[in-house]
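Re: your question from the hallway

Yes, I did run it. Sequences:
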Amino acid sequence: NAGVTQTPKFQVLKTGQSMTLQCAQDMNHNSMYWYRQDPGMGLRLIYYSASEGTTDKGEVPNGYNVSRLNKREFSLRLESAAPSQTSVYFCASSEVLGDTQYFGPGTRLTVL
Amino acid sequence: GDSVTQMEGPVTLSEEAFLTINCTYTATGYPSLFWYVQYPGEGLQLLLKATKADDKGSNKGFEATYRKETTSFHLEKGSVQVSDSAVYFCALSDRGGYQKVTFGTGTKLQVIP
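Structure:
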């Protein structure tokens, strides 16, 4: 089992460019999450999906959109990247909401 | 709302020293409590958890006890190793509402030989 996979691992964007971060899990989990991690800020929830077909905003959703493509895949889109979105992005999944979360290896994004 | 407060880091210890990382929480109801560990360049992984008061979670020599009376879930290890160097996150899952997970800001541990 690969667990939670994320692509790409690294990305550099210019201000205003768009991109999609991909996430997939092979554990048959119902719930999936996107977080960003900034120094001194811990983890902040961007969006989550309690189950296939549903998505909800987290603490810091502005500037992002998500798609729960199917039970396995949950993508995060930056429509017009800004330097404030420079961060490390983690995808996670859990069997149900609130249960133990399993994290991917992260995507390190720099917006110039 | 829910919150988790961890001790500020970094914490620097010599190998074989005793470790305590403090964690206190604020939550309505009866949350589940977690400790996650993040090794350099990796995502978080579960270290241990406890789902009700007085439960003790343990793994890899680490322990934490769910103390409802003091709203605490302190992480301890009797003898740390260099390989324990990582960032440790305390978290809670509110079992009411939509069961959002709230993370602390993390405590960096450095163990020196």
